[in-house]
C-alpha cells in the first residue's frame, strides 16, 4: 500500500465519531483529499468533469499561481534593494522577499483554514478545497508592507463574509479573496493605497514592514501633465514597456508581471480550468475602452486618455485580475455568452475607473466585484433569450 495512503488509513479511526480527534474530522478529510481523489459528485460550482476532481481543479490553479508567488518574492527584494541603494544580488534579494512575503502567505492559510474548520465543524460538512486557492490569491494582491494583523483580518473577512455566510464554496456570489482585499482597501486606505505602501525597506521590524515613497506606474500615468507623453513620462521614471511587461516595478506582491499572467492564462485554458471567453473578453474590453478613449483625446483632454491601450494591460493588476480573479468558477457566469459579456464589461469598467476616478487608480478589483454581483443576472438573461428563441420552433 502507498505509504501516504497507509498513514491516512491508519489514522482515520481517531477522527471518526467516538475518536479522540472526532472534532477535527473535516480537517482530516480535507488533508486526505489533497493527496487522493474522492468518489463524491459535486452539487455546486465548480463542477468536476472528466478526470478533473474538485481538489485537482484547485491544486492546478495553485500550481499556476506559484510562479507569481516566487516572482513576487524576488521583486519585493529587488525593490527593497533599489530603495535602500544596495547593489542587486539575486539570492539576498530573493531571501529578503521571502522573509517579507511568506509570513503573509502563512497567515492567510492559517486564518483561512481556521475559519473553514470552524464552519465545517458547525455545519457537519467537509472542508472545501476552495480555501486553498483563496488563501493563496489573497496575499498576492496585498502590498508587501501590509501588517500581519491586517492580513489576518482581511482573509477572515473574505472567508466569513464573502463566502461562509452564504453557505460556503459554491454558494458565494463574490470572489472571497477580492472581498477581503476590498475590505482592507476601504477600512485602511492609508496602509493599502498610495505611493509608500508598495516598497518594503531593509532592516524593518518583524510585524510591520516600513515603506518608502516611490510613485507607481499607475500614479505616474494618472498625473501626467502633457497629452501624448504619458508613455514618455513612464519611460523617464524607469517604467518602459519591457519593465512593465516583466513586472519589475513596485506593486502588489504577485500581480505585477503580465508575462507570468499570460503564461498562467495559457496553462489554465489548456488544462480546462479557466474560461478563455472571460480572459479574452476582459482583454478585449480593456483594449476597446482604451482605444475609444484615445479617439476622444485632444489637446485639452486628460493626458491619461491618450495612453496606449496595451499599457492598461501591463500596468498594475489588470492582467492578474482578468486571469486569476475574474475566472473564478463560482462567482463568474456559467453560460458562454454571459462569460463574453462579463469579461468585456470587466475590462471596460477597469479602464473607466482608472481614467475618470483618481481615488481608485487600479480599477480591476472594483470592476470584478461589481460584475460578480451581476453574473447571475447575465446568466438569467442569456437563458431567457434562448428560451424565447426556441418557443416559435416548438
Give the topology.
Blueprint: H1 3-11, H2 25-35, H3 54-84, H4 90-123, H5 130-140, H6 148-160, H7 176-187, H8 189-192, H9 217-223, H10 230-236, H11 241-246, H12 258-270, H13 276-296, H14 309-314, H15 318-325, H16 336-356, H17 364-390
Helix pairs in contact: 3-4, 3-5, 3-12, 4-5, 4-6, 5-6, 5-7, 6-7, 7-17, 12-15, 13-16, 16-17
- Tell me the fraction of residues in β-strands, as a range: under 5%
| Silhouette | globular
Q: How many separate domains?
A: 2
The overall average pLDDT, rounded, is 86
- Runs with pLDDT <50, length 5+? 204-209
Order of helices and strands: HHHHHHHHHHHHHHHHH
**How would a crystallographer describe the biggest sheet?**
none
The quaternary organization reads as: single chain
Describe the structure.
- 61% of the residues lie in helices and 0% in strands.
- By secondary structure, it is an all-alpha fold.
- It is globular, with a radius of gyration of 22 Å.
- The chain folds into 2 domains: 26-34 and 49-197, no CATH class; 217-387, no CATH class.
- Mean pLDDT is 86; it is low at 204-209.
- The longest helix has 34 residues, at 90-123.
List keywords for this structure.
globular, 394 residues, 2 domains, mainly alpha, 17 helices
Summarize this structure briefly.
With 394 residues, the chain is an all-alpha fold. The protein is 61% helix and 0% strand.
Amino acid at each position: 500500500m502507498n505509504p501516504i495512503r497507509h498513514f491516512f488509513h491508519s489514522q482515520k479511526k481517531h477522527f471518526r465519531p467516538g475518536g479522540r480527534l472526532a472534532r477535527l474530522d473535516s480537517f482530516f478529510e480535507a488533508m486526505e483529499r489533497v493527496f487522493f481523489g474522492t468518489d463524491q459528485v459535486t452539487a455546486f460550482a465548480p463542477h468536476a468533469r472528466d478526470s478533473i476532481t474538485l481538489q485537482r481543479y484547485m491544486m492546478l490553479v495553485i500550481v499556476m499561481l506559484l510562479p507569481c508567488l516566487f516572482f513576487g518574492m524576488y521583486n519585493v527584494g529587488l525593490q527593497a534593494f533599489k530603495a535602500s541603494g544596495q547593489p542587486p544580488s539575486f539570492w539576498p534579494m530573493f531571501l529578503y522577499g521571502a522573509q517579507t512575503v511568506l509570513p503573509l502567505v502563512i497567515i492567510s492559510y492559517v486564518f483561512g483554514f481556521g475559519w473553514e474548520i470552524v464552519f465545517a465543524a458547525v455545519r457537519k460538512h467537509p472542508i472545501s478545497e476552495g480555501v486553498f486557492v483563496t488563501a493563496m490569491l489573497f496575499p498576492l494582491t496585498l502590498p508587501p508592507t501590509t501588517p500581519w494583523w491586517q492580513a489576518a483580518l482581511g482573509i477572515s473577512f473574505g472567508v466569513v463574509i464573502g463566502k461562509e455566510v452564504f453557505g460556503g464554496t459554491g454558494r458565494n456570489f463574490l470572489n472571497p479573496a477580492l472581498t477581503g482585499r476590498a475590505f482592507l482597501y476601504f477600512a485602511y486606505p492609508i496602509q493599502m493605497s498610495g505611493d509608500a505602501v508598495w516598497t518594503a525597506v531593509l532592516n524593518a521590524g518583524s510585524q510591520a514592514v516600513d515603506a518608502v515613497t516611490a510613485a507607481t506606474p499607475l500614479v505616474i500615468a494618472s498625473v501626467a501633465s502633457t497629452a501624448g507623453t504619458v508613455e514618455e513620462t513612464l519611460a523617464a521614471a524607469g517604467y518602459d514597456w519591457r519593465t512593465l511587461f516583466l513586472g519589475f516595478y513596485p506593486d502588489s506582491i504577485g500581480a505585477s508581471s503580465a508575462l507570468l499572467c499570460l503564461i498562467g492564462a495559457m496553462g489554465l485554458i489548456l488544462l480546462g480550468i479557466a474560461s478563455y471567453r472571460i480572459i479574452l473578453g476582459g482583454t478585449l474590453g480593456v483594449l476597446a475602452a482604451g482605444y475609444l478613449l484615445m479617439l476622444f483625446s485632444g489637446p485639452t483632454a486628460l493626458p491619461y486618455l491618450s495612453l496606449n491601450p496595451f499599457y492598461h494591460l501591463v500596468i498594475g493588476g489588470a492582467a492578474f485580475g482578468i486571469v486569476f480573479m475574474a475566472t473564478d468558477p463560482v462567482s463568474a457566469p456559467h453560460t458562454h455568452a454571459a462569460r463574453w459579456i462579463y469579461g468585456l464589461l470587466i475590462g471596460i469598467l477597469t479602464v473607466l475607473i482608472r481614467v475618470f476616478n483618481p481615488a481608485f487608480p487600479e480599477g480591476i478589483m472594483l470592476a470584478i466585484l461589481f460584475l460578480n454581483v451581476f453574473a447571475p443576472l447575465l446568466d438569467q438573461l442569456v437563458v431567457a433569450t434562448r428560451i424565447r428563441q426556441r418557443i416559435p420552433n416548438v
